[in-house]
Amino acid sequence: MQHGHEPQPTVSTTPRPRYRYPRIHLIAVGLCSAALVLILTLVPSPDATATKTVRLKPDALASRDIGSDAANTPGPDTPTAADSAAAVVDQMLADPQEAEALVADVPGYDWQEQTVKRGDTLSHIFKRVGLNSRDVYEVMEGSGDVKLLTRIHPGQTMRFAIEEDHLVALEYVMSRTESLLVNATDQGYRAEKAVKSLTPFTSYAEGTIDSSLFLAAQRAGLSEGLTMELANIFGWDVDFVLDIRRGDSFRVIYQELHLDGEKVRDGNILAAQFTNQGDTFTAIRYEDDAGHASYYTPDGDSMRKAFLRSPISFARISSHFNLRRKHPVLHTIRAHKGTDYAASRGTPIKATGDGKVIFAGRKGGYGNVVILQHGQKYRTLYAHMHRFARGIRSGRRVNQGQTIGYVGSTGLATGPHLHYEFYVNGAVRNPVTVKLPQAEPIARAERDDFMLVAQEMVGQLATYAAAMESERLARLD
Ligand SMILES: [Zn+2]
User: Fold this and answer.
1) DSSP states of 26-78 as a string?
2) Whole-model pTM?
């Protein structure tokens, strides 16, 4: 079944099923009818992980290469597969228990296998297969990545091919996906790293919340990591502690990275929807030309806000913004132009937005204070700091979330706390209630490309959801 050449509809953000979906196999179905997992056993994507090169198309998946662009234009996407797979592999922990030979069955060699034991050195292992320290020396004098052999640790596997007391080849299995192969050549030993790339599969999960997002996500088969990611993506719009109601729901398209038909770990969330108290938020992952991935609404607005609501995580507000407050130290009516967060001395204070330090020093009742300028319009102030973070001084650029200093009680303060002020066009505002601007939308140069991805993903969310629904109805019959 191939509909790869059907005309593309014009860009629309209305989710509607546009495709037929052949060969959808339900491998796992959640325990509860409200939370189902649908995993598509599809042709793996050649474009590795979630990037804009992903052009999944349910009608095309089963029959052809999904690296092809949705509009059937040739895409320059080939080199990314190996690159991103290698990056993924670099992050993986070695898992010697599940080690397997990457190059084991080289014909003609009779391989002897050794497991690295606690306290083992190369010499110990070489000795066990009948080699001596001279062989160790020659191998370590070899070319290529031989140095990797100094990093052996217990549980890893080494395989030796020995002919007439001479080591002809050695394989050192570093992890499930990485191996070092050392071969005897005329110029001595030569070592080369072999990397198996992980194959991304696209999966879908959806669920309805009874009590918490975590329980519903677990029922839907989402890992803890993916659930955290989901909460992070929507955390700017939804407070997952206070705002969640029974009946809230989510849909997620994400990647699973497989090796030899087995899942190794989850990849990225490609698209997701969260419905909270009747409002539906949709997020699309997009990686720009510089390789920065971020989540956007289908219209290209950032899912992030330009400012964190609070400069300290999980801190209690000890004094609210109040322009007619009686000052606790001066005992006079004095505007409280900010919000106070009680926290112990030394608690890190985060820059709430990307910006530039325009003041870092001592200033009267504020004590040690940092003032940040964010573009033309916004300014934030952080007072009573115990000390500044390293490198924080006038003119320095800071990123959202970066630690700029530590809670203290310098200046006019009764105890350790952060006094935080928020200014819009020079006028002070209540940091707790001020409407925060969105972070930068999709760059203009990438907009067209993004819209194609967004349209595709919104369509897929609807398609998968419809497939789940008909599956559910079929099971009720
Ligand atoms: Zn204050």
Assistant:
1) -----SSTTSEEEE---PPPSS-SSSTT----HHHHTTS-TTS-TT------H
2) 0.58
